[in-house]
Design a protein that fits this description.
Length: 298
């Protein structure tokens, strides 16, 4: 087995916390991924991972190997990128993550077009509404909807994404229609929430300026598309990107609420790790995506 490829698998396994996930990311079966790890453990004569039924973490020596292997592989990737730049042919893997709905509707359709134009580049797309650590998880490109915290990441804005409060006619018939922001406190609000997330609130754009409203509901989810499904089923009021529910609004399946005081728009954009030498294939993908998605969420 290739020593370097085994190191790459080991690094991804540690980053993703799972032999199965690390192998899948490298296009390997769980058995093949496990074989790569065993190959390294036999080579060094030490155990590299602590495994339980629920968790997988590197041993002390495994952490040492991970830290050093990651630096070595990053240097090799930069060297390959420099050669690719000199040859004029970008090649290799671009790891991309995007929010679930935006990823399915906006980012996923771009991937076949990009690869058709750049056949030497492989794009590995993950969809998730949870926050990711790009550096620790080895992500090259992360699309976002929101307002990212200031960091060393390179941020490119694609455009503003208007949001809208919506509910099904059946819900409004049963519970009444809110006519002012404060009325939302008496309604079932459908919440997008993650483990260890802070208290939940919506910020509405009013003539007096932004108003932060604490809202509540009997249930929440970490998948934005589920909120839309719940709203369509008459379960409550959802705060969704307008582009996502535009067809439902036009068909009357959902009703826009409080149009005079809508939620503040969020930003749609893309993040890349801060590196002195940005891999040409990553830059190429980002440029392609930003150009293609301009105005897509307006």
């Amino acid at each position: 087995m290739s020593y370097l490829e085994s190191l790459r698998v080991f690094v991804r396994v540690v980053e993703l916390g799972s032999i199965t996930a690390g192998g899948r990311d490298m296009r390997l079966s769980p058995a093949a991924s496990s074989a790569r790890i065993r190959d390294l453990e036999e080579r060094f004569g030490v155990r590299l991972l602590n495994r339980t039924t629920r968790t997988l973490t590197p041993t002390e020596i495994g952490r040492v190997l991970y830290d050093n292997a990651r630096r070595v592989l990053a240097t090799l990737d930069e060297a390959e990128a420099a050669v690719a730049t000199a040859s004029g042919t970008p090649q290799g893997v671009v790891r991309v993550v995007a929010p679930l709905v935006a990823g399915r509707r906006l980012v996923a359709p771009l991937v076949p077009r990009f690869v058709a134009e750049n056949p030497e580049v492989q794009v590995r797309l993950r969809l998730s509404d949870r926050a990711v650590n790009m550096v620790e998880e080895g992500i090259d490109v992360a699309f976002y909807l929101g307002h990212p915290e200031e960091s060393a990441l390179i941020r490119r804005k694609i455009g503003p994404c208007p949001r809208v409060l919506v509910a099904a006619p059946a819900y409004l018939a049963a519970r009444g229609t809110p006519t002012a922001p404060e009325d939302l406190k008496a309604h079932t609000c459908l919440l997008l929430r993650f483990p260890r997330s802070p208290e939940y609130y919506w910020v509405l754009d009013t003539p007096a300026g932004p108003v932060k409203l604490m809202v509540a509901g009997g249930f929440d989810t970490d998948d934005g598309s589920v909120l839309t499904d719940w709203a369509l089923a008459g379960a409550g009021i959802a705060n969704r990107p307008r582009y996502e529910v535009a067809d439902d609004l036009a068909a009357g399946r959902l009703v826009e609420l409080l149009p005079e005081t809508p939620p503040l728009p969020v930003e749609f954009g893309v993040l890349t790790p801060h590196r002195e030498f940005l891999d040409p294939k990553v830059r190429l993908f980002v440029d392609f995506a930003v150009k293609a998605l301009k105005g897509a969420v307006a």
